[in-house]
Amino acid sequence: MRLTSKRLILAWLISAPFGYFGMGYLSNFYSTPFGFTLVALVLHFGMLLFLYLTLPMVNLRLQSKPFDMGIALALFIALSALVWTLFNMAGQFPSLFDAAFYHLEADQFIYFAIAFILSLLLTGWALSFVEEQKINQPRLHKYVGENLAGLAVAAFFFSIYLISVSIFNQPAFNSDDIFFDADSNLWRWRFATADYRDYYWRPVHPFVLIIIRPLVALIAFFLKGNALHATFVLVAFTGAFCVFLVWYFVKQVLGNSLYALLIASLFGASTAQLVFSSLIETYIFLTATALIFLIFLLKDKPLFVLVVTGVIAFGITISNFGQTIIAHLLIKRDIKQWVKYGLIVAALVVPLTLLNNFVYPNSQPYFFDLSSYEGEGHNSFPPSIQRGEYLARVMFLHSIVAPEPLILEEEIPFLKVWMFRASIKKDPMRLAEYTNWFGTSVALIWFALMLAGGLLFLKNLGKQDNRLQFTFILILLFNFVLHLRYGKDVFLYSTNWTYAVILFLALAWRELANKRWFQISLLVFIALLLVNNSQLIYTMLSASALHIK
Asked: Residue 431, SS3?
C-alpha cells in the first residue's frame, strides 16, 4: 500500500514547514476557504511529489559521496541560518516588515490541515496509478535528478531575495536614489502600475516594457492580480535563477556538482547579487540574460536562439548588448556568424522599439533619437586615476564583500545608502570602506582567493582552452572603460561584472576544485561572507526605518 511507504510519509512530514510558510505568503491573496484549501492542496501535492522522487537520489548520494553530502548539508544549514536571521532582523523594524505576512491566520489552520491530509491521499493515488500503468520516468524527473543541487541552492536564495525585495520596494519608498543610486521607485511604477512612462525620459531601455510587464502580468494572474507582489516575485525569482545558471555553467564546464554548488552560493551571497535581487530595477534581468547567452554559446545553440537572447539584452539596456557581442566573438570565433548575429539583431531592434511604444504610448523616447541622449550627461564624469582606483575596488572587492556603506543626507527625504559617490558640485569623490576587523578580514581572504586565481590562470595560460576566461576578462575591461566615465555610484552596475569575476575565478581554481581542503575553505568563506553581507541589509533597514512610520 503506497500510503504506508516510509519514503512517502517522510516526504510528507518534510513538506509541512515549507507548505506552512508558502501558504502563509499565498494566504494574502487566497483568503476564501475554498480558494485557500485548493491552492494549499496543489502546493502540497507538488512539494510532496517532488520530495518523494528526490529522496532516493539524496540517499544514493549520501551513501556514495558522504563527504560531498556533508559539505552540501553544512552549506544549506548556513543558508537556512541566513533566512532565519534575515527574518528576525527585519522583524526589528515593524514599520518595514510584518512577519505576520508569512504566517497563517488562526482560522486558516483547519483548511491547511485538510489540504495537508488530502495531499497525502492524492500523492499516494497518483504514484499507484503511475506504477499500475507502468509509465516511464518522466523527462522532468530526470532533469530534476541531474540538477537537484542547483535547484536546491536557487530555492534557498529565492527565499532570501523575496524577503528583502518585499521590504525595500514598498510604495512608502517613494523616491529614487535611496539605495546605490537605483531608480527603484521609477521601475516599481513602470513594472507594477499603470504609470509606465519613464519620467526621466531616457532612451537606453528601448523595449524593456514589452519584455518585463508580460512576465509581471503572468505572475499576477496567480496572485489574484496583485502586480506589486508579482514584481517582487519576479525580481526574486530572477535573482535565484541567476544562481542556478551559475551552478549550471560551472557544472557543465567542469563536471563537479559540489564545486558548482559552492561557486553558485558564493555568487548568490555576493553583495551585488544580494542587493540587486532585492531592488526593483533592470540590472538583475541583465545578469540573467548574460548568463543565458553564455550557456547557449556553451551548448552551441543555433543562431536564432542567440539572436533572441541578444535582442532581449538590447531591449532591456542598450549597453549590455556589447557583452553578448564580446562573448559571441571570443567563444564562437566565427566572424561570419558574428556579423550575421549583429546585423539580424540590428534589424529587429527598431521594429520592436516601435512595437513597445505602440503598446505603451509615450513610455520613453526612441533609442535612435540622438537628441534624447543629452540628459545622460549628468551621469558622466571626467576619467581620473582616483576614479579608476575606486572603480577597481568596487568591481573586485565591494561587489563581493560588502563594506560599511556611505550614509548620505541629501536632497531626498531618505538617508542614501551608497557604495561610491562621484565628485558632484565640487564635493570630493567618496568610497565605502571596511571599518571593522571582521569585514576587513573577509575582504582580505577574498583578495587572497582572487590572487590565487590570477596566479593559477597565468600558470595554466598555455595549457588549456582559455576562450571563456578571456571572454570574462574582456567583459570586465568593457565595463571598466564604460564606467570610468559613467555613473554616480558605479556599484549600481555591479551585476554587469560580478558574474564575470566569479566565473573567471571558478575556472581559474579548477585544479583545486576536487581538493577537500579547498572545498572546505570555500564553505568557510561563504559562511563568513553571509555573516558580513547580512550586515549591509541591516544597515539598509536601519537607515530606512528612520523615515518610514
From this structure: strand
pLDDT for the residue numbered 1: 42
**Per residue in 168-207, is it b (16+ CB within 10 Å) or e — as a string?**
bbbeebebbbbbbbbbbbbbbbbbbeeebbbeeebbbbbb
Please state, in angstroms and rounded to a whole number, the distance separating the CA atoms of residues 381 and 488.
8
Chain centroid to CA 185:
19
Q: What angle, 0 to 180 degrees and rounded to 10, lies between the N-to-C axes of helices 139-146 and 148-168?
A: 80
Contacts of residues 515-523 at CB distance under 8 Å and 24 or more positions apart, as own/partner, are: 516/67, 519/71, 519/258, 519/259, 519/262, 520/71, 522/262, 522/263, 522/266, 523/71, 523/74, 523/75, 523/78, 523/262
* Residue 391 in this model has a pLDDT that exceeds 80: yes
Dist. CA 393–CA 398, nearest whole Å? 6
Phi, psi of 301 (to 5 degrees): -70, 155
Q: DSSP secondary structure string, 214-266?
A: HHHHHHHHHTTT-HHHHHHHHHHHHHHHHHHHHHHHHHHHH--HHHHHHHHHH
Q: Is residue 483 part of a domain?
A: no
Whole-model pTM: value is: 0.94
Question: In the chain, how many domains are there?
Answer: 1
Distance CA 41, CA 146 (A): 27
Output the average pLDDT for the chain: 91
Contact 85, 163 (CB under 8 A): no
- In which band, very low, low, confident or very high, does the pLDDT at 31 lie, cut at 50, 70 and 90? confident
Phi-psi region of 382 (alpha: psi -120 to 50; beta: other; left: phi over 0): beta
Enclosing domain of residue 122: 1-66+101-140
Looking at residues 480-500, what average pLDDT do you find? 94
